[in-house]
């Protein structure tokens, strides 16, 4: 008996329910990854994520080989490639993880029908890429929660499934062939500081973070210079780590750091249940409609300054440069730069979200689009009119200026708090800096959102 295990956003061997289920009933399995043409056509396969994915596939193949198996990779139309593999392997069933986007739901539907047409069954497993799947906890009056806090209360009470053991041996039928795996070195346009991908790296990172970071997480996570968050988002996005496993481990650890970390993991599930219920929220305003944003046509220079990290606001520029260099930013930096673009420059959140999705190694439709909507005030924030002051925030979250100095070398000679407001320096000092003037003055920028909104509505 043979089963195909279709791997998608679950590129690991530990805690992998579809793989365990397949191994329970089959003597041989085909671990299959399909480089889906549709993902590439949608523009989602950007260099940073392609490079990280190449690492993940190589690591998974090595882990499978250690257990007597190997990874089979194919490219093309996912449904056609799975059906071809099933025929070649003469497999009885296909196992995969559930995806919760509209794209994933449609793909799964097509696959199920194609397999049924040839008398094969598709088994879709929940709780692989999220801990509490969309639709599991719902309020009395709706199909999903629109506000985080009541969601979190229910989410936290939901029992976690037990962990699935990593397989020791895997037999892959010899005659099932695949294509060579992609190599990270073949991808161009990758951020120089992009982290390495793969389950092995992910597990190392967890071990280090559990030793050195987790207990202080609550106190330090917003400290920009300390760089003290887990940096596990890329591993959660590609599924090289299991959210269920992280939650079991964090709950076992306990204490304020682990509790705060658990709460952040709930935000992931929260956004996924919003997007699953309202797939149009990937592009359209979720709660409060705003048709009056400035756009590429009306704010081109401001948008370009923001993208390049040359707005004249040091903390914003530091964050935008980190994004390009590492393909990642801490949450506080994402909040500040997104608020600056939407609330201070009054630019459409979709423009910022697209830029983030181009660079972020953890770029995820649910987490990115809905966090952007949260900041822009069109989404699930219960205080949609809040505007973050980039100077006050910089003084609070980068009090010594270490973060700005790391990413904006033009200001490396300045001390805090002066480096957060270089336009206030005496004229000769200011003139000596090769650093732009602010694209917009404060408090003008802080009022802009409210004035524009009052005018437009
Ligand atoms: P930690 O602080 O260590 O948190 C642990 C984990 O909790 C993270 O790895 C992540 O999986 C989850 N988490 C934390 N905060 C959030 C949040 N607000 N929403 C959802 N999950 C969260 N996260 C993504 O994974 N992909 C994105 O595309 C993405 N885009 C974002 C865009 C904006 C404008 C904002 C404000 C936030 C975005 N986030 C996104 C959420 C968050 O910023 C990142 O998950 C976090 O910064 C990743 O770093 P970390 O792993 O060190 O997080």
UniProtKB/TrEMBL annotation:
Q: What is this protein called?
A: Deoxyribodipyrimidine photolyase
Indicate whether Phosphoprotein appears among the record's keywords.
Answer: no
List keywords of the entry alphabetically. Chromophore, FAD, Flavoprotein, Lyase
Q: Which GO terms describe its biological process?
A: nucleobase-containing compound metabolic process; response to light stimulus; response to stress
Q: Which PANTHER family match?
A: CRYPTOCHROME, CRYPTOCHROME CIRCADIAN CLOCK 5 ISOFORM X1
What positions does the domain Photolyase/cryptochrome alpha/beta occupy? 1-130
Protein species of origin: Streptomyces colonosanans
Q: Name one GO molecular function term.
A: FAD binding
Q: Which residues lie in coiled coils?
A: none
Q: Where does FAD bind?
A: 217, 229-233, 261, 362-364
- Where is region (Disordered) located? 177-202
The family classification in the record reads:
Belongs to the DNA photolyase family.
Required cofactors, per record?
FAD
Textual note on the cofactor: Binds 1 FAD per subunit.
């Amino acid at each position: 008996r043979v089963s195909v295990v279709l791997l998608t956003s679950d590129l690991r061997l530990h805690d992998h329910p579809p793989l365990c289920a397949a191994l329970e009933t089959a003597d041989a399995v085909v671990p299959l990854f399909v480089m889906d043409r549709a993902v590439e056509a949608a523009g989602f396969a950007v260099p940073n994520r392609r490079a990280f994915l190449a690492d993940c596939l190589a690591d998974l193949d090595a882990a499978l080989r250690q257990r007597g198996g190997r990874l089979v990779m194919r490219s093309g139309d996912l449904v056609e490639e799975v059906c071809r593999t099933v025929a070649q392997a003469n497999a009885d069933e296909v196992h995969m993880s559930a995806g919760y986007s509209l794209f994933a739901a449609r793909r799964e539907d097509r696959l199920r029908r194609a397999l049924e047409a040839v008398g094969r069954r598709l088994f879709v497993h929940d709780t692989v890429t999220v801990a509490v799947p969309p639709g599991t906890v719902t309020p009395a009056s709706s199909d999903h929660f629109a506000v985080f806090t009541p969601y979190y209360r229910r989410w936290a009470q939901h029992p976690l499934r037990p962990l699935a053991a990593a397989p020791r041996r895997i037999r892959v039928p010899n005659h099932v062939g695949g294509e060579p795996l992609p190599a990270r070195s073949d991808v161009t346009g990758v951020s120089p500081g992009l982290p390495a991908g793969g389950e092995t790296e992910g597990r190392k990172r967890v071990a280090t973070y559990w030793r050195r970071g987790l207990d202080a997480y609550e106190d330090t996570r917003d400290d920009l210079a300390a760089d003290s968050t887990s940096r596990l988002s890329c591993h959660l996005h590609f599924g090289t780590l299991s959210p269920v496993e992280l939650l079991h481990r964090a709950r076992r650890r306990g204490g304020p750091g682990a509790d705060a970390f658990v709460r952040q993991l709930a935000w992931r599930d929260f956004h996924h249940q919003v997007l699953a219920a309202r797939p149009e929220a990937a592009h359209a305003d979720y709660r409060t409609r705003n048709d009056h944003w400035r756009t590429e046509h009306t704010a081109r220079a401001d948008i370009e300054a923001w993208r390049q990290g040359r707005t004249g606001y040091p903390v914003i520029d530091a964050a935008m440069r980190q994004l390009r260099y590492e393909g990642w930013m801490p949450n506080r930096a994402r909040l500040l730069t997104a608020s600056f673009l939407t609330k201070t420059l009054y630019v459409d959140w979709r423009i910022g979200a697209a830029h983030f999705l181009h660079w972020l190694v953890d770029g995820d439709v649910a987490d990115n689009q809905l966090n952007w909507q949260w900041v822009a005030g069109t989404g699930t924030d219960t205080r949609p009119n809040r505007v973050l002051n980039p100077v006050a925030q910089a003084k609070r979250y980068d009090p010594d200026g270490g973060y700005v100095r790391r990413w904006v070398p033009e200001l490396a000679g300045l001390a805090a708090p002066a480096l957060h407001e270089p336009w206030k320096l005496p004229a000769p000092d200011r003139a000596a800096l090769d650093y732009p003037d602010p694209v917009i003055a404060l408090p003008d920028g802080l009022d802009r959102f409210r004035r524009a909104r009052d005018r437009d509505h």
